[in-house]
Write a structure and sequence with these properties.
The complex is a heterodimer of chains A (313) and B (277). Chain A has helices at 6-56, 73-79, 82-113, 120-132, 135-146, 152-159, 174-199, 203-211, 216-244, 248-253, 267-277, 281-309; strands at residues 59-61, 67-69. Chain A is an all-alpha fold and 313 residues long. A two-stranded antiparallel ribbon of chain A has the order 1-2. Chain A is built from twelve helices and two strands, in the order αββααααααααααα. The termini of chain A are far apart. With 277 residues, chain B is mostly helical. Chain B folds into two domains: 2-60, no CATH class; 62-276, MetI-like (MetI-like fold), CATH 1.10.3720.10. Helices cover 77% and strands 0% of the residues of chain B. The two termini of chain B are 43 Å apart. The chains are: A mainly alpha (313), B mainly alpha (277). At the A-B interface, helix 1, helix 3, helix 4, helix 5 and helix 7 of A face helix 1, helix 4, helix 5, helix 6 and helix 10 of B.
């Protein structure tokens, strides 16, 4: 075939090119239209506020919504704030109790539910109930169970000769009473995630191990736990971040005048107090920033540690 | 042989025993909530405790509605939940489709920006969000609760994962037929991402129904209160009248309970999806 004259060739190329680029341009346009609502929303309500909070953490607030730059004063104030220190301690205790114990119990339930037994659906439903329940309502019913005069818990304890404590007003106990409720309400959620992780472990592994004469305990530690470790890692990160932000239960269960408040209030509770009760918004912003930094550091540490214990296939 | 059957039996028995004990601990607070809600005040503070009330005091429930505009709270919560869920499902899936399926300049940068919201604890946004609401004059309105909840980095991320897993051929065929991106998204991709949409939907429903802090910050008038906030104010006013408080709590929980019983499978699979990835 006679080669096309150069001019025609270029013209055709140009035509193809411009067709492709209009198509591309329409692609871009569609993409921007489709992401616009979410991106604008995220920008206005999340990304910009994030920057503003950083800025506010260097300001002090007056009575009528006015604020002035005070440099690092909010941050230096933290160093001597006994309440903040205490709230970190409380949050730390809360995390150290709820995260490991919660994970342990939900793995236990998940492993039991993964056995060949009847009624697993009913069990699963019952353990999941607290997950769908409003924390405010959970707080209310547990407050009632914990009630030191008429509560059922102390009545039951009296049968075995124990005089029940003041669960929510004794400063040494209140935090642990809340922790118990938090674990109770969180088991179902993690259990479901672990259960789907367990169902992903091939049955053949267990069959092979059984032929080698491994007992259930060996199988659990040699097969189940290592293969579940990515899920455990994920759940521990999510539980930790969640636990750092605990608020609802304290807010509902501990009254503002309670002597136990100091020993139960979390970082977020303190944030709420400063931001919306005391109108100390600059300091509240600094607390929020500190919380962010602490969560980031701990997540990074967890990420670094995961290589030591998480097994990916 | 006989021995091993016995072993299996006793093992099964032990598993059931542990699970039943656990189930009692899980279920009992709910039972106690309902029982208390049907007692008279005198019965509720009797020692030793009355287990089953003599006459069921249904009027406790009536009272909840007369003491506080509880029906209004329910409607408010319902509206907030429906709008947030519908909004998130539509807006997140729209953005997720574009992020997963279209190559465009700035895609990675914008996606990382959206993701950064996921890493940050909610309290970091709260103060400025509150101030936006003040400026817009939205305090004590439902839109103050609804609007910030329409946008979700989490939802966008979750659905993007779903869209990325779908085969490319479908889309190419549709493009050859002259479909534009919205048509591909709406007619082809959305139906295929149903499990992801259900998961996000359930997640958003639970969160909207149960959330306490944000609605409490922006809405303190009963007109625009949600149930969680309403419960907290019920507690403030009737601090020790537990039959009333339990009736209110049960009413606040009941709609989610019914929904859960109807959609059990979807709830549990949905949570497994959002957690398992």
């Amino acid at each position: 075939m006679e080669p096309l004259p150069l001019q025609v060739e270029t013209k055709r190329k140009l035509h193809v090119l411009s067709y492709a680029s209009t198509k591309k341009r329409s692609d871009y346009l569609w993409a921007y239209i489709m992401i616009a609502p979410t991106m604008i929303g995220l920008f206005v309500f999340y990304l910009w506020p994030m920057l503003q909070t950083f800025y506010f953490s260097f300001t002090e607030w007056g009575a009528f919504g006015t604020y002035e730059w005070i440099g690092l004063k909010n941050y230096t104030r933290m160093l001597t704030d006994v309440n903040l220190l205490q709230s970190f301690k409380n949050t730390g205790i809360y995390i150290l109790c709820t995260v490991p114990l919660g994970i342990f119990l939900s793995i236990l339930v998940a492993v039991l539910l993964n056995q060949k037994i009847k009624g697993t659906t009913i069990y699963r439903t019952l353990y999941f109930l607290p997950v769908i329940t409003m924390p405010a309502a959970i707080a209310m019913v547990w407050k009632w169970l914990y009630n030191s005069d008429f509560g059922l818990l102390n009545y039951l304890l009296s049968f075995i000769g124990i005089e029940g404590p003041q669960w929510l007003t004794n400063p040494n106990i209140a935090l642990y009473s809340i922790i118990a409720v938090a674990i109770w309400s969180g088991i179902g959620y993690n259990m479901v995630i672990f259960l789907s992780g367990l169902q992903g472990i091939p049955k053949t592994y267990y069959e092979a191990a059984e032929m080698d004469g491994a007992g259930p305990v060996t199988m659990f530690f040699k097969i189940t736990l290592p293969l579940l470790s990515p899920v455990i890692f994920f759940v521990s990160i999510m539980s930790l971040i969640g636990a750092f932000q605990f608020f609802d239960l304290i807010f509902m269960m501990i009254s503002k005048s309670s002597t136990a408040l100091e020993n139960t209030q979390s970082i977020v509770y303190l944030f709420y107090q400063h931001a919306f009760v005391l109108n100390d918004k600059g300091y509240a912003a600094a607390i929020a920033v500190l919380l962010l930094v602490v969560i980031l550091i701990i997540t990074v540490i967890q990420m670094a540690l995961q290589k030591k214990w998480v097994h990916y296939d | 042989m006989q021995k091993s059957i016995q072993f299996v039996r006793s093992k099964t028995f032990l598993i059931h025993f542990i699970l039943i004990m656990g189930s009692i601990v899980m279920l009992f607070p709910f039972v106690w909530m309902i029982l208390t809600s049907l007692k008279t005040y005198a019965e509720s503070i009797q020692v030793p405790p009355v287990m089953i009330p003599e006459d069921f005091q249904w009027k406790n429930y009536q009272e909840v509605f007369t003491l506080l505009p509880f029906f209004k709270f329910m409607m408010n919560t319902f509206i907030v939940t429906v709008l947030r869920t519908a909004g998130q499902l539509f807006l997140c899936s729209l953005a997720a489709y574009a992020f997963a399926r279209i190559v465009f300049p700035g895609r990675n940068l914008l996606f990382v920006l959206a993701l950064s919201v996921l890493m940050v604890p909610g309290q970091v946004f709260l103060l400025p969000q509150y101030m936006i609401m003040v400026k817009l004059g939205w305090l004590n309105t439902l839109q103050a609760v609804v609007v910030p909840g329409l946008f979700s980095a989490f939802g966008t991320f979750l659905l993007r994962q779903f869209f990325m897993g779908l085969p490319k051929e479908l889309e190419e065929a549709a493009r050859l037929d002259g479909c534009n991106h919205f048509q591909i998204y709406w007619r082809i991709m959305l139906p295929l991402a149903k499990p992801g949409l259900i998961a996000l939907g359930i997640f958003t429903i639970l969160w909207s129904w149960n959330e306490l802090m944000w609605p409490m910050i922006v809405n303190s008038s009963p007109e625009a209160m949600t149930l969680a906030v309403g419960l907290s104010s019920l507690q403030g006013q009737y601090g020790t009248n537990y039959p009333i408080l339990m009736a209110g709590s049960f009413l606040a929980v009941l709609p989610m309970l019914i929904l859960f019983i109807i959609l059990q499978k979807q709830f549990i699979e949905g949570i497994a999806i959002t957690g398992g990835k």
